[in-house]
Every structure is written in C-alpha cells, then in structure tokens.
Write a structure and sequence with these properties.
The complex is a heterodimer of chains A (263) and B (373). Chain A is an alpha/beta fold and 263 residues long. Chain A is built from ten helices and eight strands. Chain A has an eight-stranded mixed beta sheet, with helices on both faces. The radius of gyration of chain A is 17 Å and the shape is globular. Chain B has helices at 8-18, 33-45, 56-68, 79-95, 122-127, 143-160, 170-174, 240-255, 282-295, 313-322, 335-344, 363-372, and strands spanning 2-7, 23-26, 49-52, 73-77, 99-105, 136-138, 163-169, 176-181, 224-226, 265-267, 274-279, 300-305, 307-309, 325-330, 349-354. In chain B, helix 3 packs parallel to helix 4 (79-95). Chain B is globular. The chains are: A alpha/beta (263), B alpha/beta (373). The A-B interface holds A 12, 41-43, 45, 55, 57-58, 61-68, 71, 74-83, 85-86, 103-104, 106-107, 259, 262-263 and B 23, 25, 44, 49, 51, 53-55, 57-59, 61-71, 73, 87-88, 91, 216-228, 234-236.
Chain lengths: 263, 373
Amino acid sequence: MASYRDYLAWERLPHLWCAGCGHGVILKALTLALAALEVPPDKVVVASGIGCSGRIGDYVTTHRFQGTHGRTLAFATGIHLARPEVKVICVMGDGDAAAIGGNHLIHAARRNVDLTAIVPNNLNYGMTGGQFSPLTPPASISSTSRQGKAEPAFDICHLAVVAGASYVARTTVYHVTEMQKFLQEAILKKGFSLLEVLTPCPTYYGRYNALGEAAQMLEWLNRSVIPLARYRQMSGDEARYWWRGRLVDREAPDFLSRLKGAG
Amino acid sequence: MATFFWQGNEACAYGAMAAGARFFAGYPISPSSEIAELCSRLLPEREGIYVQMEDEIASLAAVIGASVGGMRAFTATSGPGFSLMQENLGFAVMAEVPCVIIHAQRFGPATGIATAPAQADVMQARWGTHGDYQMLVLSPSSVQECYDLTVAAFNLAERFRSPVILLTDAALAHLRETVTVSDTPPPRHCRPQPEGDSALYRPYAPGPDLIPAMAAFGDCYIQRVTGLVHDEQGYSSSAPAVAAGLVRRLQEKILLYQDELPSPVYTGPEEPEILLVSYGISVRAAQAAAQRAQAWGHRVGCLRLRALWPFPEAVIGDWARRVRAVLVVEMNYGQLRREVELAVAGRCRVSGVNRYDAEVVTSGEILAALTKS
C-alpha cells in the first residue's frame, strides 16, 4: 500500500508558502490521490508554471517540470506525447492558467490531450504582491485595483468544457475529501481534465478585501460556494457565488489516440 | 550513396530524420512551412510525432517537453516565430534541454517581407533571450550543407545538452540543388545517461565535460527540470554561489569545447592579400567573386563560416595577421562585421559588403567593393 508520505520530499519541508495559504492542502490532496491510485512516483511528472503554486515541484518525489509562465500545458503536451505511459499532472495558478496561459488551455482542452490540470485559484497573483487576475471577482480590491477591479471575471471551468475537455470540476480547499475524490477521477480520466480549486490567500486577497485570517477565509470560501445542482436552480443571485461540483465527465477520444488513428 | 534534388527546407527535414529526430512541433510560417509539411508526412511513417501547436511559444515548449521525455525533437520557423520562441529558448538553455530550431530567416523587422531573404537575425540568434549564456548557431550555405549541418545540429544539441539553432534564409530554404546522402546512417551522439543507484542520481551534477547525465521522464532516475536557478538536485535555489556556479558551468561547457563545432572553411590562394568572410547564402557570391578576382591575378580568398556562435574569434584573429584587408559579406546592415572587427582588433582593415533590400548579394557588388579595398 502506497502512502502519501512516499510522494512528499520531506527534506525540502517546510514549504515556502505563507501561513494560511491553501497550496499545502492541495499538495497533500495530490499526494493522497496518487497514493490511493498507487501510481509509482517515477511514473508521474508534476509540471507547474510560475507563481506560488509553481513551487509545488520542489516538494514532491515524482519527476518534476517547472516551465515558463503560462506554458505548462504546451510543455506537458510534448512530455505526454513522448511518454504516454507517464501521468502528467499540471499545476497552474489562476493568473498562469487563465491570463498568460489562456490560449494554451483552450487548445490543450480542444485537443483533449490526456493531461490533468489543477488550477489552484487564490483569486490573485500572490507571488508578485496581490495583483488582480482574470479570475479575481469584479470589484475586488487588489494591489492594482485599489478602487475595485473594473473587469469582469470568467469561469475557467466553462471555458474548458466548451473547448472540449473530458472532465471538469471545481471545489475548494475547505472540501478536502471532495478535492481528493475529484483529483483521483481527473487523474484516471482519459483525455483532458481540469480541476479548479478555490484556495485562500490571506496575505493579499484576504487582507485587501477584509476577509480575515486564514480560518475565516476558509469559512468565507465555504459560504461562497453552492453545490452545482442547487446553483443551477438559482435565479438572480448566482453572481455572488461559485458553483462547486463536477461540471462535465464525458468520453471522447484523446489526442494521442486520434493522432495514432490518423497516422 | 544516393543523390536527391532537394530544396533547402527538404534537406533540413531529411537531415533531421537521418539524425534520429522523431518529434516535430511547429506553427506554419513562410519561408519554413515546407519543413512542417514534410514532417507531417515523414514522422508518422517512422513512428514519430508531428504536432501543430497554437503558436511558436507552444511549439518550442512541446519540443522541450518531448526532449525531456527522451525524444530527439525539433521545430522550424522564421523571424516572427523565432521572436516568440525566445522565451522558451532561454528555458532550454537554463534547463539544458537538447533541441534544434531551424530558422529560415526572412526580411524584417516585424512582418517585413515574408518570402524575401535576409541574414538579419544573426544577433537575435545569439542574444535574443534574456540572461547570460552561450548559444550554438550553425549556418549552412548550400542545400548539401542544410542536410549535413542539420545532422550536426542534433548531435551538438545532445553533446552539449543545449538548444542549437540552424540559420538558413528564404533563398536557401527554397533553393534546389543536388544532395548526396550516404547509405550508412550518420554517426549519432547521444546525451549522457545516468548510471548506478537511482537514489543517488542528481539531475544537474556535472559529469565529464561539465555535462550532467540526463534522465528522461518515466525513468527510474527522478528528473527535476526547472527554469529557476537550481542546485545539482534540480531544486530551486537563490543562493549567489549556486547561481554563479550554474552560470559559469553553462558558459564553460560550451566555451571550453568550442573546437568541436564545424570550423570555418577557407578556399583561395595560400597567401591571400584580401580575405572575404561570409556565411549562409552570401558565401556563394563571395566565392564566385574571389574566383573571378583570382582569375584577374588578385590574391583574394574566402572564409566560409559554418558555426556563427560561439564566434570563431581565434580563427579570424589569426587571419587578421596575414591579410591586408577583410571584407565581411552579409545580407544585413553589418551585424557580423562588428564581431569580425572585435576579433581583428585593428590588425587589418575591415569593411562590409551589405545588402538590406530583400535581394541576395551578387558577386559583382563584391568585386566592386574589392576594387576599393
């Protein structure tokens, strides 16, 4: 029986993330999911981008790839095509995945490349000092929107569905058991899977928007999400909440199968 | 021995196949598109992968990913695409990922003239990405050399664990010439492989020649690749000593072994008075002009550069002691001439024959310049 301990680079701990940051919870959920699936560490690549969550590769015993900002899925496409027997798990923050990497996300989902994308969404650029990202809710205070963010946000999960992903889900670090379950489903899914995980950034987003300390932010996240089925029945109040759940889980040929079929 | 009538782009694609390349990721762009088109046919026939990415940033990213997966991987592009690739070119330098970029230069800046030749990306190839590094750049001057130097580029990429850029141009890319190909496959240099206890493997511990052994993803040796400054374990570090050690090794692993690159080739009289220095498509006009001048009784020789970077400074310096003047023939406003001037260091006169009007240099122009030298 594998243990999550086998996937953690203990000698590298403690990690560099701030006290109260949710990234450590995501790291643990990932190691729990890999252990439950019994995937050997040498058959996993944790590929990440730039920003706080990009440092996740420093703390795992699996293969590690940290590319340039926003390009993780493009690198991962090459890794997967060269070594399809290896599970490639991509970790990209909200700025990385939705802004600079938005185009790569659309096309990785469209091709349905057999990759797992985890988007830890802490609602801002943490590493650079709390600027707003495309996923920051409108009117939020950030270090580049002191009067409130003027832009709307978008739903990265719906984007992935429309583009062609086989599996898309969203949860929060408050819902740890659900996160691990979704992660296992995403990793097992043949084709492109995306899991967005809402996670607190008490250092910046929480402080700027007066959401309290880490524990209060977790409570706030819990109050701010509505299960998908209930969310769909809401009328008028949806903008104040995030839905939570499995948005799509469907069968479609993945990119490599299509390539081999055409070849 | 077999002969083919290929254009430069075809010779690059067939050269890559002969060198064992089995992964191509690219984005269509003139004047390099024939390489992508040919690869989309040749690679599936060889159990290889052709993938057309959403842009050139993603193209080089996929190439790098496939290379860390253990494949010989490459891309082809031209100026605007090469500009987009600069980000991940630097990543390949830092992470020491072997890969080949075929860059068919076209007229610029910006969109320029998409189908017209230039040699104006010589400095971009050297310095285009940020930071302190060495770049390996080869420049073929015939279709035969497109084939031969593409093979060399893959071997150098594996030998040095580095990106290698093959600089052609719109004229050479579409020029058709006879190419001779040996029946025996070309010798293949492979990246050093880790050995021994997998628990002791350190992905960036330098081996002989300063090159670390390179595990592929999926091997029992755990590979850690990052564009951050990293220690020998592949873990990120911001310690000044680690940063200095890494930059020094990245420089020296190439500079100390520069003589392994294709050396400049001289043709002409034993004791020339004037030396033409050229590279790429311009070599052809330079050689024709030198021969004409020799027929008229002048001692004019031609030095053909095959590796542009690292610049063959010592070779040029030696020639500067033996000739009265050096003429640098190139299709730009004088990019490599400045490098020649640095190597010559005042020992002889240096001037340029430059064209920057989207046309190739002619031998007549060089002869006219020679009469003034």
